[in-house]
């Protein structure tokens, strides 16, 4: 595909995404936030339009487009004040499925996901006692004949109550037998509908944002050997591939959030009159908005750069981390700026700022906290000593 053809496809997709988002205005998201409920209709609309399956190859019924196109979709959703967190996992899990899934797994699941018949919206990595130290997770998957038996607990597995499939990282070698810190972990593709009938329990976690996040308990859950994704004991390496795409995609959402905050702030500063003049006439109000705009533009370019490297099959750990870092900083700074621009009204729920402020704060912590991004850059990019 030429660059012009790709640009035209992206233009058409973004027009369609825009039209969908307009049907789900801020009032829709405000109500969901109050009720702590899932944006089912919004996700259905995105699924029906095919936008959530753009990374699935044509032969399985998807659009066969690349991560760059996916970043543009997520950015546009957030720019419109909507929230793609309800649905983005289907995009960032795709790298692992396409790269490590067997032909049988791809043929079994991808056409159904592409058609919107089933969802792959959950990725269970984090555990309460391991935190960011993924290599120390203790949920086990022990091989027994043609099955694996899973025991343990995951925390913060988002959307587990709104998906049919999940990716799960579990330990297939005991810690005393591992050859390196990252050895002995494996990735599984689990049918949650079946798993909940025997050995898997999901509980929602009450959080400061409406994120449908959960904890999951595994009590002798039996899955088939065929549910293993890729090679046994190589799950950590396989997960890393998804982590880069996850960082890039979430950075795109941050850029979209940032643009939304800037638009809100400009609009308010152009209309709110205090001391007989528009507050936007004061440089004390203008400059933070300009600063946010500059930060967002810079972050946006790093997101596209990282996505292009990913799409070209180049190593992109540094670029993915930089884009996530800069975009999360830009959106958080924009959120602060927007709240400040709105003064007291920024705190009124009907203005939507406080809700988006809470939502965008997440990206300083998840899917990876800022410290670990800086630590990645220090060690892997700059050659500083490893600190943990
Ligand atoms: C709403 C929400 C949704 C989430 N969704 C998912 C999901 O779908 N799937 C999933 O697997 N996980 C999910 N997570 C988990 C998320 O990825 C983790 O919360 C995040 O990686 C941080 O892990 P932790 O909370 O255990 O913090 P910890 O690892 O306990 O760290 C706590 C703090 O200490 C700092 N810290 C710890 N060690 C060091 C060090 N050596 N150097 C410097 N700083 C350090 C960290 O930066 C952090 O600020 C979600 C979390 C939230 C809040």
Key attributes of the depicted protein:
388 residues; 15% strand; Butyryl-CoA Dehydrogenase, subunit A, domain 3; four-stranded mixed beta sheet; 10 strands; 3 domains; four-stranded antiparallel beta sheet; 13 helices; Butyryl-Coa Dehydrogenase, subunit A, domain 1; 49% helix; Butyryl-CoA Dehydrogenase, subunit A, domain 2; alpha+beta; binds flavin-adenine dinucleotide; single chain
Overview of this structure, please?
This protein is 49% helix and 15% strand. With 388 residues, it is α+β, with helices and mostly antiparallel strands. The protein folds into three domains: 113 residues, Acyl-CoA dehydrogenase/oxidase, N-terminal domain (Butyryl-Coa Dehydrogenase, subunit A, domain 1); 115 residues, Butyryl-CoA Dehydrogenase, subunit A, domain 2; 145 residues, Butyryl-CoA Dehydrogenase, subunit A, domain 3. The strands form three sheets. A four-stranded mixed β-sheet has the order 1-4-5-8. Strand 2 and strand 3 form a beta hairpin. Helix 4 runs parallel beside helix 9. The longest helix has 37 residues. The N and C termini lie far apart (44 Å). Bound molecules: flavin-adenine dinucleotide.
Question: What is shown here, in short?
Answer:
The protein is α+β, with helices and mostly antiparallel strands and 388 residues long. The chain has 13 helices and ten strands.
